[in-house]
């Protein structure tokens, strides 16, 4: 389900980079198999967003590689905090985030994204 924030981003995806963020892609044999974005919220805080791995490539450790690259990129940019919005129904993703040090900030209805019901953060 596309929400208003998704539509705005789809209309101008390069704004992520223009506003100081990053788009990371994981490529194997010339094929993009995973992506994520780092939105710059402030000099010290980034949001990890839109992370996904192609369905036929899941379970191979690519999510871990992508997440580690995103964490490292945020650190390189001087971030002290990295947070994400997700959904508690995504147990495998949440386990990956927790394994890498993310903790739950809040659970419940999100004011912007109806599909999100958990906010997690990693202190860098």
Automatic annotation (TrEMBL):
The lineage of its organism: Bacteria, Pseudomonadati, Pseudomonadota, Betaproteobacteria, Nitrosomonadales. The keyword Transferase applies. The keyword Nucleotide-binding does not apply. Pfam families: Acetyltransf_1. This is Acetyltransferase (GNAT) family protein. Residues 1-124 form the N-acetyltransferase domain. Gene3D superfamilies: 3.40.630.30. GO terms for molecular function: N-acetyltransferase activity. It comes from the Bacteria. PANTHER family: GNAT FAMILY N-ACETYLTRANSFERASE, LD18367P. Keywords: Transferase. InterPro entries: Acyl_CoA_acyltransferase (IPR016181), GNAT_dom (IPR000182), NAT_camello-type (IPR050769).
